[in-house]
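User: Design a sequence. Structure:
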C-alpha cells in the first residue's frame, strides 16, 4: 500500500530559510561519522527490534529515502532521519545519502525536525503532542499555524495537546502502544486522577474497547446524577443550542451553556496558555 501523504512536509518551511527561492537541497553521499545527531530530536523512543529490522532492510535494499542534514562547523548535523542513521551504524555502513540544506538558524532547524517527525505515521501520539507544544512554547506558533504546516485540522492539534494533561503512567502506556489515542481521549473527561487510573488499568486488564470505555464513563455520570438527584430539563432549547453553535464558531473551541434557575454559566474550553491568550483577545474584540 502506498504511503499516505500527510501535509506539506519539510517543503512547507523552506521559504522561511534564508536561501534563494530557486535553490534545491543538495544530495550528497556523506561519511556516517561526520554526522552528529539532532539535539532537538522529537522522537523519544527507538525500538531496538524495529531498528534491527530497518537495518536488515537497508542492508538488502539500500537507503530509499535520504536523510536530511545541515552543514555545521565543517561537519554535518542531522535534521531528519535519526532511525535511518542509527540503522546504518548497526550494519557498519561508511556512507549514507543525504539532502544537505542551508539552515543557519537553530529555530528553523527545530521547526524542520519537529514537523518532519510529526508527519511520520510511526511517531507515537505523546511525542507528537510534545512536538506541538514545543512549536507553541518555543516558536510561538498558533494551533492554526501548526495545523496548516502539518496538514491537520486545528481541533486535531488541540486534541493531541490535551493528551499531555494525562497522568504519566497513561502517557507511557500510549507510547508503548498498550492503549490507543482513542482510549486516552475517552479518559480525559474524568476529573479525578485516581478514578482515571483505575479505569485505565481496567482497560489494560480486560482489553476494553474505546466504545466500552465511553459507555462506562457515561454510565458513571448517569449514576452520579441519580444519586444526588439533580433536576434538569430533558434537553436544551433550540435557542440555547443555536447560541452554543454560534459561540463555538466565534471562538473556534468547545462551548457549553448550563442553565441554573433564571441564570446559568457559559463554559469555554481551552487547551494551552497560547489558546487562552487567543480567547482573551477574541473576547476583548467583542467590545470593539
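Assistant: Done.
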Amino acid at each position: 500500500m502506498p504511503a499516505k501523504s500527510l501535509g506539506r512536509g519539510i517543503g512547507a518551511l523552506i521559504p522561511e530559510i534564508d536561501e534563494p527561492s530557486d535553490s534545491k537541497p543538495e544530495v550528497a553521499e556523506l561519511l556516517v561519522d561526520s554526522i552528529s545527531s539532532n539535539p532537538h530530536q522529537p522522537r523519544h523512543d527507538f525500538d531496538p527490534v524495529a531498528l534491527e529490522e530497518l537495518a536488515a532492510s537497508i542492508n538488502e535494499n539500500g537507503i530509499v529515502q535520504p536523510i536530511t542534514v545541515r552543514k555545521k562547523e565543517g561537519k554535518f548535523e542531522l535534521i531528519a532521519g535519526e532511525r535511518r542513521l542509527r540503522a546504518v551504524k548497526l550494519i557498519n555502513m561508511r556512507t549514507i545519502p543525504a539532502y544537505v540544506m542551508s539552515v543557519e538558524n537553530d529555530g528553523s532547524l527545530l521547526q524542520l525536525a519537529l514537523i518532519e517527525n510529526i508527519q511520520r505515521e510511526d511517531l507515537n501520539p505523546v511525542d507528537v503532542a510534545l512536538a506541538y507544544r514545543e512549536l507553541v512554547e518555543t516558536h510561538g506558533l498558533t494551533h492554526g499555524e501548526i495545523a496548516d504546516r502539518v496538514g491537520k485540522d486545528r481541533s486535531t492539534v488541540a486534541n493531541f495537546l490535551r493528551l499531555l494533561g494525562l497522568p504519566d503512567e497513561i502517557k507511557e502506556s500510549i507510547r508503548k502502544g498498550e492503549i490507543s489515542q482513542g482510549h486516552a481521549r475517552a479518559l480525559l473527561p474524568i476529573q479525578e486522577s485516581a478514578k482515571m487510573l483505575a479505569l485505565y488499568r481496567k482497560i489494560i486488564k480486560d482489553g476494553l474497547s474505546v466504545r466500552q470505555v465511553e459507555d462506562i464513563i457515561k454510565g458513571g455520570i448517569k449514576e452520579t446524577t441519580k444519586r444526588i438527584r439533580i433536576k434538569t430539563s430533558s434537553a436544551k432549547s433550540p435557542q440555547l443550542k443555536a447560541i452554543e453553535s454560534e459561540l463555538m464558531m466565534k471562538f473556534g473551541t468547545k462551548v457549553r451553556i448550563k442553565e441554573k434557575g433564571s441564570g446559568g454559566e457559559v463554559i469555554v474550553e481551552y487547551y494551552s496558555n497560547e489558546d487562552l491568550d487567543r480567547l482573551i483577545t477574541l473576547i476583548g474584540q467583542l467590545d470593539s
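Residues 1-23, 221-234 have pLDDT under 50 and may be disordered. The chain has three domains: 9-159, 177-228, 238-285.
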